[in-house]
Amino acid sequence: MSTQLAARLVVGDPAAEAHAGAALAAGAVVGAAFGNCYAIVTRPDPGTVRTVNELKGRPVDQVGSLTTTPMRIPRAFDWSALPAGLSAPEVLGLLDELLGIGPFGFRGPAAPDVPDHLTRLDAGVRTTQVIAPGYPCPSNGFLAAALAATGGDWLHVTSANRSRHRTGSADSPAHWRAAGLRADFGDDPRFLLLEHPDEAAALARHPDHAPMSTTILAFHTLAAPGPDGRRRLLLERHGSLPVEAVRAAVEPYGFDLAYGPRAGHRLGQRAYLDRPG
Fold it and tell me: For labelling, which of 19, 58, 163, 271 has a CA lying 20 to 30 Å from the CA of 173?
C-alpha cells in the first residue's frame, strides 16, 4: 500500500476498502462515507457495540442498528412476521424504490439469526433496524469487503457523531464532512476514516437528500387507516429524505404515512463554521 493511500483512504478504491475491511474485522471503528453523509461502521459483536456506544458517549447498552450489502438486506427480516394487510412483495418493492435513490433506514421484524443486542421489542414484535447507504453508493464495496473479512452477514452501524449525552447539546447531528469526523474521533487509535473522494460530488449525487442521518420507515406494524381508508406505514424518523419524497414512494403501493413519536420534527443538519448548513 502506498504512502498516499495510507494517508487518505477513500471509497471506490478497492485497495482502500480492503484495508478498511480488514481493520474493521480486527476491531477498528471505521468512519465511512455513507450516501451523502458519514456513518460509523464496526463489527456487530456485543463487545464492539458497547465500545462504540462508550466512545460516542451513549448508554453502553443502547441497541445498535445493522448495515449490510444490498443482496443481504432482505435476510435481516422475518417475512413470516409481517402484520396482516402487508405483503412481502410490497415491502421488497418499497425497499428497492427507496434504496434505489439513496440512503434510507427500515425497521421490521428481525430474522431469527439477528443477535438480540441488535434488536428491539416494539409493539410486541422483535424488530431490527437496517440502515443502508443506498444502492448507488460506492461504499457498498467497503461493506462487502468488511463482510468478507469478518465472515458474517451483518455489520453494526451508528451515526457519525458524538452523542448529545457526551456533548451536552440538545442535538448532535451526524457529520457529512470527513474533517469534522476526524476532529471528533481522530485521536483515538481505534478509529479509521474511509472518506468520500469528493464530498461535493457525494452531495450532488443525492439532490433529494439532506446530509444527515437517514429517514426510517417501519413495517413491523401498520398504523390505523386514514380518513380515506388507505393503509398507513409508520414513519419512525424524519431524516435525510423528506416526508414528501417518502409519501411519493409509498403511494403507488396503496399506502399513506403515519408519524411515529420521533417523526414530528426533522432531524437537525450539522453546520460547519465555514458553511452554515
Answer: 19
